[in-house]
Amino acid sequence: MRPTKYLRARFIITGAALAATSLVGAIAPPSASAHEVDSNLTFLATTMGGTEAQILSDAEAYAKSTNQNVATVLQAAVNEAQANGYSLHSESLKDKNSNAAPNNSGGTVGSVPLTAPRQAGDIFWSDSTTDHVGLYYDRTFIIEAPGEGKVSRKAPIANVTASYNHVKLQVNTTQTRRNAAAAYANNYLLGRSYNIYFAFNRKADGALNCSQLVWAAYYETTKNSGVIDLDGNGGPGVYPGDILRTTWVTRY
C-alpha cells in the first residue's frame, strides 16, 4: 500500500507552510511538488520491486548523510535508474533477478565458463538479464550476491558462468589493497540476503546486491585513507555499470 497520507503530510508545500517550518524546506525545495515526489517514489518502487515506504526511508537516510533534501535525492535516484535502463515499461528489477541463471545472476546471455583473474581483488562484469558484477577472492573462488532469493556467497570459479562478452576489471591500486578488499568480502559480506534496491545502496550493512557488495569491499577497507569509491558517477546508488565505467578500473 502506498503511504499517500504520509507523503502528503511531508511533501505538500505551500508558501505558508514553508514560512512556518524549516523542516519542510529541508525535505523538499519549493520547486518540488507533491506529485513529483509521489511520482518518483512510484517509479522506483515499480522498477525495483519494493515498497515506497522503504525507498522513502532510504532516501531520507541518504539525504541526511549528504546534507541534501529528500526530493532532490529521489530525482537523482530516478535519473540514475533510467540511465541504467529501468523504465515503467520494462519488467521490474525483482522480476529480472528472479529470471536469472541458477548458477550465477550474470550468466544468462550466451553463457560461458568464468575464467581465473590475474590476481585477488579483481572484478568480473557480466552482461546478463541485468548487468552483474562479482569479486575474485583469489584465482580459484569468487564472491558475489547472485540475485533475488539467494544469499551472498563464495563459489568456485569452475562452477560459475558469465555472459560470452564478460570482462575482467583490475582495480588501479596496490595488491595489498586488492587483497584487503577480497579478505573483507570473505570475512564480512557473505551470507547476506539480497537487496533488491539499487537506488540507495551505498552502504555495507544489511542486505546486499551485486554491485553493492563489490563497492563495499573496496570502500570499507580504504575509507580512512585514500578511499577507493567504485561508484563511477557518484550518484545515490551504485550499479554494475558504474563499476564497469569508473576510472578506478582497467579492463582486460
Can you count the helices?
A: 10
Number of strands: 8
Strand content: 5-15%
Question: Which strand order does the major sheet show?
Answer: 5-4-3-2-7-8
User: What is the CATH top level name of the largest domain?
Assistant: Alpha Beta
Largest sheet: 6 strands, antiparallel
List SSEs in N-to-C order: HHHHHHHEEEEEEEHHHE
Which architecture of the largest domain does the CATH hierarchy give at level 2?
Answer: Alpha-Beta Complex
End-to-end gap? 46 Å
Structural account:
The protein is of the alpha+beta class. The protein folds into 2 domains: 3-83, no CATH class; 95-251, Alpha-Beta Complex (endopeptidase fold (from Nostoc punctiforme)). The chain contains 10 helices and 8 strands. The strands form 2 sheets. It has a 6-stranded antiparallel β-sheet with strand order 5-4-3-2-7-8. A two-stranded antiparallel ribbon has the order 1-6. Strand 3 and strand 4 (141-144) form a beta hairpin. Helix 4 (34-48) crosses helix 6, helix 5 (52-66) packs across helix 6 (70-83) and helix 8 (175-188) packs across helix 9. The radius of gyration is 19 Å and the shape is globular.
How would you summarize this macromolecular structure in one to three sentences?
The chain is of the alpha+beta class and 252 residues long.
What's the structural blueprint in terms of helices and strands?
Elements (H helix, E strand, L loop, with lengths): L3 H8 L3 H6 L1 H6 L6 H15 L3 H15 L3 H14 L9 H6 L13 E2 L9 E4 L5 E5 L4 E4 L8 E4 L4 E2 L4 E5 L3 H14 L21 H13 L17 H6 L3 E3 L1
Antiparallel strand pairs: 1-6, 2-3, 2-7, 3-4, 4-5, 7-8
Helix pairs in contact: 4-6, 5-6, 8-9
